[in-house]
Amino acid sequence: MKTNSKRITIQDVAAKTGYAAMTISRVINTPHLVANKTRKHVEFALSELGYVKNNIASCLASSKEVFCFVLLDSELEIIDTLNYITQVSELGRIPCFLCFENKDQLLANIIKAKSFGRASMFIFFSEDNEAMVNGILVEENVVNLASSKES
């Protein structure tokens, strides 16, 4: 196993095995599409080199919508927040949590989230801040995917 701090890439595995980088990628992502002999040879090299799949890079390269911005009202109770975190993680998205205490912070967080392109946004808020949050959502043309708070 390689001991230096350099991250092992698909290209490193391709160089070691003599297979194309696309073949290495297929072994990692869709092993059922690769011949058994090839798959075993590549899997051995992956293990020997200490390759670790970078799921974030993989999702970004595939142009999947993976980021999910969760805007949390700081007034939410911890049990509500934990329930929301669970819901988001079950969607298979990479959550980015941003908290807000006031209108300015919420607006700044929405702008940050929008700068990432097609990221999903979930906004969870307390009943005390419902009017303020809804006003900003309309102004910023943001669909509130958490339109009602579960009890």
Question: How would you summarize this macromolecular structure in one to three sentences?
Answer:
This protein is an alpha/beta fold.
Would you mind describing this structure in some detail?
The chain is an alpha/beta fold and 151 residues long. It folds into two domains: 10-53, no CATH class; 63-139, Rossmann fold, CATH 3.40.50. Helices cover 48% and strands 13% of the residues. Strands 2-1-3 form a three-stranded parallel beta sheet, sandwiched between helices. Helix 5 (78-90) links the parallel strand 1 and strand 2 (94-100). Helix 1 crosses helix 2 and helix 1 (10-17) packs across helix 3 (36-49). The chain is elongated.
Strands ordered across the widest β-sheet: 2-1-3
**What count of structural domains?**
2
CATH topology of the largest domain: Rossmann fold
The amount of helix comes to 40-55%
Please give the count of helices.
7
Which residues sit in consecutive blocks of at least 5 with pLDDT less than 50?
A: none
Question: What value does the average pLDDT take?
Answer: 79
Task: Please give the CATH architecture of the largest domain.
Answer: 3-Layer(aba) Sandwich
Q: How would you characterize the largest beta sheet?
A: 3 strands, parallel
Span between termini: 51 Å
Q: Which class of secondary structure composition applies to the elements?
A: alpha/beta
Shape descriptor reads elongated
Give the amount of beta strand, in percent: 5-15%
